[in-house]
Design brief:
Oligomer: single chain
Number of helices: 0
Largest sheet: 3 strands, antiparallel
Strand order of the largest sheet: 1-2-3
Structural class: mainly beta
Helix content: under 10%
Shape: rod-shaped
């Protein structure tokens, strides 16, 4: 065991000094022990929030809160349309789903609420 603190990223106990920094031999993370260390995480999942502030998850059912025009379609998706079994994705349109009468769609979470 060493007299140095464990790595804040991977919790390895075999850290060693290099100049005025500490180095982890397992994940190669370098940090200054005199500075306050923010715990880093490899979990970069973002929360997807609906229009009411509720967190959405894969498989949820949501309701469209306003009429949404669809490019190339003669009609819009009407407010109140229930969408079942959503899938969350990264990007601007962060919900993938299938809507009856329209097929596969990508929606923005700000235009839906959790059912």
């Amino acid at each position: 065991m060493s007299e140095f603190p464990p790595c804040p990223k991977c919790n390895c106990e075999y850290t060693y000094p290099s100049d005025n920094m500490l180095v982890c031999p397992e994940c190669f993370h370098e940090w200054n022990p005199s500075e306050e260390v923010a715990v880093e995480s490899d979990d970069f999942t973002t929360k997807v929030i609906d229009s009411n502030g509720n967190e959405l998850q894969d498989g949820d059912t949501v309701v469209v809160i306003k009429d949404l025009p669809v490019k190339g379609a003669p009609k819009a998706i009407k407010a109140g349309t229930k969408v079942k079994n959503i899938r969350l994705t990264d990007g601007d349109h962060n919900i993938d789903c299938k809507i009856d009468g329209f097929g596969s769609m990508a929606l923005k979470s700000e235009f839906v609420r959790k059912a």
